[in-house]
Structures
1.
Amino acid sequence: MKVKIIIALVALAINGTTIMAQEKIKQTAGRDQLGEFAPKFAELNDDVLFGEVWNRTDKLGLRDRSLVTITSLISQGITDSSLTYHLQSAKNNGITRIEIAEILTHIGFYAGWPKAWAAFRLAKDVWADDAAAADAKSAFQREMIFPIGKPNTAYAQYFIGNSYLASISREQVNISNVTFEPRCRNNWHIHRAKSGGGQMLIGVAGRGWYQEEGKPAVEILPGTVIHIPANVKHWHGAAADGWFAHLAFEVPGNEASNEWLEPVTDEEYNKLK
């Protein structure tokens, strides 16, 4: 019987994968700032606006909610600390420096040029740290044959740091390239299967790590092949000193699924050299 290898997104089993809910948003700003002066307003802000509306992620994701909120605030000329907060939230929800620049440029034509200028002044500070990272990312792209791809926002909750996904092929076999910024790694996880299953990684560029529970970490360099058996707890990601990319092959299995576990702590990670 011919075995068909499916190359898929890192740490995601195509067969039987269930996407876990995003972490629930909790807000206390209303009570912190207005709890005694306007307790009802504080309650509505914290429990209804953020506690209920922002948490309806099954209807509209956090990234899209950030985009709608930013557009609404700028259109009204609101460029105070509330816009700064929502710009920071947008960054946390996966909107990149390049994307926010394009978003604000687009808003400027509809909401007004001075409003866009005011928003840009705030956005530059929020995304300031990303400028150096963007330069390093561009340099890494020049040394790699595959594209870095788009931010892995859908599964950011299972990663420490930023990761990126690029589709290489969807004919015959599915191939995706997975890129990690320095120190980025996914959570401990297990590729469950009653039979078959598991994963294979191939290093593409940079330097990374793979570790199974109870075993020393293994360095991944370009050309390194890692075979991950089914039902084995493990993690993988970039080394601390640079960007890293690998291809991830998901092996089909009987009743295959992924089990996401706890993050790799800084204490664990910092032991690696």
2.
Amino acid sequence: MDWRAESPELWAFLESLRGGEILSGTVTAIERFGVFVALDDGPEHPLYPGVGFISIPELSWRRFDAASDIVHVGQRVSGEFLQFDEWNAEARLSLRATQPDPFHAFAACTVVGQEIHGHVTKLVPFGVFVQVSEGVEGLVHLRDLTSTPVAAPEDIVQIGDEVTVVVTQIDQGNRRLSLSRQAAGQP
């Protein structure tokens, strides 16, 4: 669709937006792929339930199961404008960009070799994820789970288990935290 010709008011509005600008509006629809937002200062979208759109990864820094865990229809939100999606004629927004990144706060007060406590949030074939702080999870690779080799993580831990781990690597650029249960002397 040629949005420029079909909806010149919408196109002009979207072209006027600048990266980093904070836009406010009301959540109008929640889909499995993201959230539509009717922007306060924007025109209506001729096809979608809102001119603003927030993709699932841009909703929050923390792990969640569904977008409805973060927002609900009718909720007022403010998000940072990321880009003008010319294909869909949408303003791509980020809610998490308006919130401090908990990983950076965690990394600022944590060092490699430090022993910390957390709980198992996810089991995967190559290890387990452990939440060590609100919005911060790290991976304990299968080889670092215990001193004796195991075929699957569920042989050692279950989701929800409290564990003690040692920080083995902090990669702030990629937001990755590597942990070892074995180094913490866990059986």
3.
Amino acid sequence: MSLKLYFAPGACSFVPHVLLEMSSADFEPSMVKLHKGEQNSAEYQAINPRAQVPVLVNAGQPITQILAIVLHLDQIFPKMNFLPTDPMARAQALSTLAWMNNTVHPTFTHIFMPQKFSDQPEVQAALKPYNTQLFRSMLGELQGLIQAAAGKGQPWLSGERLGPLDAYSLTLTRWGTMAGIAPEAHPALWEFVQRVAAEPAVTRVMARERLQLNVGTPA
């Protein structure tokens, strides 16, 4: 099996990066420096014309989008149980993963890159505080999911094994600190992501990507 992951430090590509590290598979991590525009190069766009990360290349075939990549990794590493096997639990885990990717994630993009949504400076300025409040409430919802899982005796969001929901939780919480949302605003969430960060595979990925959890100054 020939696996290559194109990732950007601190981006949502952290999620499959963690899963691959957990799998102990022989994979090639390839950094894409978004701040230098490497995603816009002809070479990279030949792999992903949308100029986004992550991209997982398996035996020469590129796979894009978090949901597709996570499902593929779950299928090729079935013993890892990245996602639950019970049909209802699996559907619920995928529902949460989709929410993280199609709702929470884009809300942060409105904060971090408002220029993607308007070319008017006054609109861009208004997008940041508005979406920061939305993002803060979504982190509160995420904290509620973590507390509900703990209430059921689950150590991780989707069950007994660390998985994509946990890695994405770390990413979203870390982004919150970039938006000026103090970790103390969601103490159960912050405690949880610190526990995620302490897992050996996660620690190795964070070291490779040179990440720290709290990267912002509270507003």
4.
Amino acid sequence: MLTTDRKTTADEAAAPDRAPLLEFRNVRIVYDNAIEAIRDVSIAVPEGGIVALLGSNGAGKSTLLKAMSGILYTEEGEIESGAIRFQNEDVHHLSPDALVRRGLVQVPEGRRVFPALTIDENLQMGGYTRTAAEARERRDKVFALFPRLFERRDQIAGYMSGGEQQMLAIGRALMTDPVLLALDEPSLGLAPLIIDRIYEIIIRLRDEMKMTVLLVEQNAQRALDIADYGYILETGRVVLDGTARKLTANEDVQEFYLGVSATGRKSLRDVKHYKRRKRWLS
């Protein structure tokens, strides 16, 4: 069984071993009082960094974000044990709007913009927790970050491309002035050039706006290219964690998630075959 050597090297200095901004503590989540989706998961997200949460479909990544955002109840989910702490306070009992007001904001998978509203109206909806003056200031910052949205601010959101809708979804979340921004599969269904643009924005959020980002991705290579630290989930539990550099260098991660081995890059079919014999699940 594969084990990790957490907090033991100088390379781990940037790892979430100091007081975290967001922390999942031994969280167990069940659906319909019967189906265990998350099993004893502990994850720490330090302030001012990008933490990647990686794993295949069904690993439990989105479930953790739903728990963090207070929307598990919409799918009959419940935190059965453990705690979620944000800024040193337990928050898993709070409502979604209370979490947003505290600065814990999620961009959901699939973008989910308001299709019948214009870009400008979508942004106004995102700024509902702010005063009119604050909302105008935040909107100016969003337009500076996404000039394309400014150019099309009067366009109906439902007629935008997938990449533009993803920009709008991120911009709408930024209207709340988040302390921590959680992004659920931001590259899903987008062309490579658009993904490049989205990831450039994520880097700017960290480096220029000093924002903390929790990045949920299936595209491990993309996520590890920009993350400071990462966790890998399989069947509802953390099987590996470490700095992005350490995970990228790990032979198992290369083999099972990056499609690379000593014999060269594998095809997707090969990767799926190798996933059946992951050593950390033996």
